[in-house]
User: Fold this.
Amino acid sequence: MNTPISKQQEKDFSIEDKLRALYELQTVVSEIDKIKILRGELPLEVQDLEDEITGLKTRLVNLDDEIKNLETAIKNKTIAIKDSESLIARYTEQQNNVRNNREYDSLSKEIEFQKLEIELSEKRIKEFSSEMQEKKENFEASKALLKEREEDLERKNNELDEITQETQIEEEKLKAKSEKIESFIEPRLLTAFKRIRKNARNGLAVVTIQRDACGGCFNKIPPQRQMDIASRKKIIVCEYCGRILVDKDIHVLPAE
Assistant:
């Protein structure tokens, strides 16, 4: 847990001390960033695979329900065909006992209607069978893909666990070091550092002058401003990107 610096301690720190502490903090948190980059895309890949697996499982459930519904529809149409055949047989028998042509014609129309119903049911059975076959093929393909993705997920999780174990101790040491450095930085500066870092795309809140330019946004820094930065008498930020600027020799400790 960080112990806030006292007002007296804050006075004891020169601007150069503060700049050096900010630069050192930036160096440490950048190392932590590198570890996270090493883990890199793996956590995202694991999440994507988990989402895809969930989607595939949902798809399999839906396909299974659709196949069962089609099977039921085919059974119903098969029953309907048998019912129509029974009606045709009954109407045909009744035609042998009609009293006039009108009754005969009426029965003939009923027989014709039932024949059309049979044709329609057979057509629907063929359509349902074709659709069911397609869904069964999709089901098997999705099932195979699910198995493949589950194997991928297991492999990625193992990779992530291995990398995490390898870097965990180093990361914990760096985090402890960063917390120690933070305890020597006044709250106002630390808050500004974290705000700049959060808004910076590469996580750099403190940058050195490189080839007469800001090491963050690479805009040119005027010579006089570079001299002010090198003097370490005040905290100067880049007028273009807002990062805290330090000279390239800030890491070199002064001679005793």
